[in-house]
């Protein structure tokens, strides 16, 4: 177990951008005319994310990831706003 944790931390250091653990509900669209499927974004970075899907859900090689978060504006200027994600 300790060996695995040491290897895992070394792998994380090699990533180009830091990952942040999150638990965002999301959907993926297979883009083939079939319906949206539920998933959970488990962690996210500037370059990618780790998704958790239900057992038996088939994932195509490429898809559209959709997620929404309820937000509150915490600052704004002429052309930009800063938002805070709200829980729930």
From TrEMBL:
InterPro entries: PilZ_domain. One of its GO terms (molecular function) is cyclic-di-GMP binding. Residues 14-86 form the PilZ domain. SUPFAM superfamilies: PilZ domain-like (SSF141371). This is PilZ domain-containing protein. It comes from Rhodoplanes roseus. The lineage of its organism: Bacteria, Pseudomonadati, Pseudomonadota, Alphaproteobacteria, Hyphomicrobiales.
